[in-house]
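Protocol step 6 of 9: fold each sequence in the batch and record its structure tokens directly after the sequence line. For illustration, a two-sequence batch is reproduced in full.

Sequence one:
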Amino acid sequence: MAQDSSTDIPNVAEPTGRWWRICLGVVLAPLTVYRTGNRLVMRLYRWVLSWADSRFGTPALFSLSFAESSFFPIPPDVLQIALSIAKPARSFFYATVSGVGSVLGGVAGWYVGYALWGLLGDFFYAYVPGVTPENFALVQGHYNDNAMLAILASAFTPIPFKVFTIAAGVFDVRIWVLVVASTVGRFGRFYLVAGCIYLFGPSIKALLERYFDWAALLLFALLIGGFVAIKYLF
């Protein structure tokens, strides 16, 4: 079991927040970055895009997907979209690369939380965006309620996936739960991007970059709504 970090995480018995609090923060993050002049994130964004013009674009996509699941702030969709726009016929190949890298990165994040949190916790709190004691307390509440659904939501939507993978290790969520939920959510998200590009080509690029996160949230809400309707109607 992972050791406690020097920064205490409250023991939350019930959910202490709502999904919209996390989602709103993620959606507004780019605006905050722009207003505060955080050039580091923008430089990372441009650096990620630069790999689309390189012969190492596919290995870079895998590495980015792996890293984003545990510590890197830029989502792999950025590079996946750029690579797929250049070669629409390979859209699903790039989605598969993103999915495999992301799920494996999630396992690495789980291991950090499970075995290394006592050593690395303070570093993550200080330097990894979105990893805070407050967010961990919020995630613990959702894990107490339904860990599978919580991870699935973070894997498919713009909710910070890294917070959930690391917290899964910290709070002893079983590894198979993480792998199953991550596989469904991450591959679903990346294949959705691939399908849009494969069907509509370069013309869909601007719409994906501007509205994809909102569409992912809406699709996930409709999916959960369908399960709720089945439960109460049948």
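Sequence two, same batch, same settings:
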Amino acid sequence: MGGTRRRPRSGSPGPWPPTTWTSWSTPGSWTPASSGAPGGAGPGAGRTAKLYLRSATPVEVALPARDFELIAGLLAYAVEADPSGGSRAALQRAARALGAQVGAGGRDHATVRSLLAERGYEPYEDSGVLRLRNCPFGRLAETHRELVCHANLAFMEGLLQGHRRGGPRAVLAPRPGRCCVAFV
């Protein structure tokens, strides 16, 4: 066979490629060499599963390099520097309108949850409150917390716009290491 495996004749049961064949000509006559578990069989056989944990340091890759944080920071500084408050009001309106646009497809609890998950918020239930494990704007929020959290709240309110009465409402509920918005 020259070191390469060939598929047995059609009609042979079993997964491909097998670990060891006892016969190439008899359909169904193969046995695994080893499953990796102590004793070679049973639940948990094979390589130990790896456990991955979230990094405290975000990792992003873009080719060619992009710096969206720079422009976001510049815009945030410009809005905060506007003494009239007109820029903040415009940001709130824009965030609410974009939220309404994103949420236009459906507004039941499951849909809102999936929309949030698609955008990286990582929603989870906590004693009847829908909380958000991740803030997609985390690094910008570190330096412009009030601006970012209020814009995020306006986005969430827009997302829920038109939701039936008695449905969840978005509120500011900051917690360390979590998004500042929750749904009650």
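Proceed to step 7 once all outputs are recorded. Observation for sequence two: The beta strands are 123-126, 129-132, 170-172, 181-183.
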